[in-house]
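Moderator note: this is an archived Q&A kept for reference. The question asked for a predicted structure of one protein chain; the sequence and the answer are reproduced below.
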Amino acid sequence: MNYDILLAPVITEKSQALAADNVYVFKVLKSANKTQIKQVIEKKFGVKVASVNTLNVVTKKRRVGKYSGRTNAYKKAYVKLMEGSKIEF
């Protein structure tokens, strides 16, 4: 099992509100699919996954002084757990 698929949990106000409903948000590899994400979450955290939704976060233009550039693009996974399962960070 390749645990490198999970890059980091996404900790925001929105993700913390979703955690109350058993939905956790992770930053994952762009090449990862839903089945791989589900298997890694179940093995790594020892929980049962109900569903996985993914989305590609697009780049945004950013400017710092005279320098302009773009933010990094990444894939985000919303993982819904079965009742009674919980992930602690």
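Archived answer notes: The domain at 3-81 is CATH 3.30.70.330 (Alpha-Beta Plaits).
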